[in-house]
Amino acid sequence: IAVDNLLEVNNIEVIYNHVILVLKGVSLNVPKGGITALLGGNGAGKTTTLKAISGLLASERGEVTKGSIKYRGEAIEHRDPAETVKKGVVQVMEGRHCFEHLTIEENLLTGAYTRSDGKAAIAADLEMVYEYFPRLRERRKSQAGYTSGGEQQMCAVGRALMSRPETILLDEPSMGLAPQLVEQIFEIVKTINEKEGVTFLLAEQNTNVALRYAHYGYILESGRVVMDGPAADLRENQDVKEFYLGMS
Ligand code: ATP
């Protein structure tokens, strides 16, 4: 079957501060309309991979020194984040990163800053975000810094949606959240994927939940892809069960 890959990462190497080699040749494909998971433990290189794609690496003195990253066939490995957002790729950072002094609604509206399609379209999308996240509607006038971790994670995803992205790079959506909320966030990701057709590449340490929602997974260890396959196959794989799902 011909797969329409939106994003192709080909054998990239990433170095921080000119000396610290963190990604040692990572390749992965993200098909249009899919949910792809990037799995692996602490420090495996998941966040670095997402930042290499979004262009956020540069602000951390990181650099793609080998390989290529193509979005719709076009090289993006040396683009800055604003250009990548204009191409339709937006990253939701780990640890949520809402503007604490802005209200939830003001945070959501910052996501629309690159758009030029007018107030009515933006208002319609705000309504869409509130339909996905009723909790955000209730809290829309609250200062983000005073809302809960789960609400801030929802706000971060909602803000990404406000840029009308084609692809969302989602870093550790489960981080710091109670299991029930984790499930809720992933359910919404699934719905956004199915209804809005948004493509997801998500980094997750929580292998169990990620492999239940993703279509395809890549497992990273020390800056290399050590295994990849359809999520259903990975869930049944003996090594994955033993080392990542805590079964044996
Ligand atoms: P985590 O879930 O902890 O974020 P990860 O798989 O996302 O893990 P990365 O954050 O990509 O891993 O980190 C990979 C490696 O790169 C780690 O060893 C980390 O210490 C190192 N690293 C990350 N950012 C920098 C930086 N700005 N400068 C130097 N080294 C860094």
From TrEMBL:
UniProt-listed InterPro entries: AAA+_ATPase (IPR003593), ABC_transporter-like_ATP-bd (IPR003439), BCAA_Transport_ATP-bd_LivF (IPR052156), P-loop_NTPase (IPR027417)
PROSITE patterns, alphabetized: ABC_TRANSPORTER_2
Domain ABC transporter: 7-247
Cited Pfam families: ABC_tran
A biological-process GO annotation: L-amino acid transport
Record's keyword terms, sorted: Amino-acid transport, ATP-binding, Nucleotide-binding, Transport
The keyword Transcription regulation is annotated on this UniProt entry: no
GO molecular function: ATP binding; ATP hydrolysis activity; branched-chain amino acid transmembrane transporter activity
Family: Belongs to the ABC transporter superfamily.
Protein name per the record: Amino acid/amide ABC transporter ATP-binding protein 2, HAAT family
